Input
Amino acid sequence: MFIVEDYFAKPRLLKTMKAYLDGLSVTLYPNIEKFEDELINLLNEDRINRDNMVADGSSVSITERRLIVSH
Output
């Protein structure tokens, strides 16, 4: 008897593998700076509204960018 197993029904993790890419360029539309500025503004507004705070000059900032590529 031939049994067909559905690999998508129960996914399995694969072993992790590190890879380093030189010269990789990623362009986000319209650009990453505009996206980050809008994101920071929205996060600051949310933080102030959520905590019922008054703007005190402190703000959220982007300190690191990471790109995770998987298949």
Remarks:
- The chain has a mean pLDDT of 77.
- The two ends are 33 Å apart (CA to CA).
